[in-house]
Structures are given as C-alpha cells and as structure tokens.
Fold this sequence. Notes:
Elements: E1 6-10, H1 15-26, E2 30-35, E3 44-47, H2 53-64, E4 70-73, H3 88-116, E5 119-124, H4 137-156, E6 162-168, H5 179-188, H6 195-207, E7 212-214, H7 219-228, H8 230-246
Amino acid sequence: MFNDKTILLTGGSGGLGSLIGARLMSEGARVIVLDRAPPAACSGFLQHDISTAEGVEAAAAAIAVRDWDIVINLAGIQHFGPFEWQGPEHLMASYMVNLIAPVRLTQAVLPGMKARGSGQIVNVGSIFGSINFAHFVTYSSAKAGLRGFSQALRRELTGTGLDVTYVAPRAVKTALNTPAVMEFAKLTQMNMDPPEEIAHRIVEAIRGRKKDVYFGFPESLFVRLNAIFPQLIDRALSANDRKAAGLFAN
C-alpha cells in the first residue's frame, strides 16, 4: 500500500517517529520528515519549529506547494506537574505543537488532496485526550481538541475520497517522558508500551485507513466509560491523582 506514496511525518526525528518512518520506507514510501533536527534516515527533511505561530506558518507554506498522499501529525510535547507551574512560553508551545500545528498543516494540504480526490490525514493523539489526566492539563486538553478536530473533519470530508485517522496510544516508553513522569508511572503502575509495538500498530492503522483507534486495555475501556460515566472514572483515578500530587508537595 505504501509503495511510491509520498508521506509527510512531523516529529519524525524522535524515538517513535523514527520507527514509524523506517517501517514506511521499508515498504517503499517516500517519507519526508518535518522536525527541528534531522532524523537518522528519511527520504527528505524539512526543518521547521512548530512551537511558535511563525514556525507553524512557515511549515504550512512549505508543505502547501507539494503533493502528499498521507500526512502524519505525530509531533508532541508534554508538561507534567501542577498546571500553575507551567511557564507561559511552554504552555503556548504545548498547544501549538499538539493542536494548532496539526490543524494548520492539515488545512495547508487539503486543497491538493481534494483536487486529486485522494489522501489520508493521520492525527496521533493519546488516551489522555479521552481520559483527561490531572497534572497533564495542557497535554490532555490539546489531545482532546485533536480528537474533536479529527472527528469533525472526517464528517466534513465525507464523499471526497479523503480519510481521517485518529490514533490514541496510551503511555509509550520514549524520551518524551521526563524522570518525574517515569516516577509517576512507577508509583501508579501505569502501563507503558514499547515504541516498537506502537509504531507497528500505528502503521497498521494507517494501512487499514481506520477511523478511531485506541490502544491498550483497560485504557480503551476507560475511554468508553469516561464518555458515559465520568464520575466513575474520577473515583477510579483519584488515588493516582493523590500520588501524583505528592510528587510536587515540596
């Protein structure tokens, strides 16, 4: 399916992104990575910083003039800790990278995809976008926005030949996790998946042109319960929320 396809991959220089890019290239895809630093291997590289409005616009202008078969919005950053401790610059960057950039970059490539009558937008969100975790406030809320954007855009594109895939992994063992996140994971026995497994599952979701895909059990069950009985999930998470708060007590 990926042979001779031209694919844009944001965040392709990171641990998970490099694995996804390698898998796609092994099947004949031309993978163009958009990131701040070049990856170990790719078919092409676009150097942009999408943590600022100016950087997002520069990236949008660069990709709007090219033809893309698939766009994978993977890039992400995270703040773990009390919401009021997050600096304003990092707060703005969190929404830029996790939400604004995927929306704007998608908007930039849609005219070309619609003119050709084919294309696929892949937004990599998170279980945190459906189960909004304390101490991950900006990350959770941005990913919730990305999930809503994906669903709304999919409905708007009905009948155009374009597909929108939203993929929501649970925690993944990558460099995105700070020592504090790893300590939280240990305290709460949080499930964390190896990046190789998640890269494989993301590629398979793209191959199947899936709509909404949630990885992990019981997390995928909690997504459904949270939509119907949020107070039940509040109670289930309360003990872990207290443990997290304890990490920042001093």
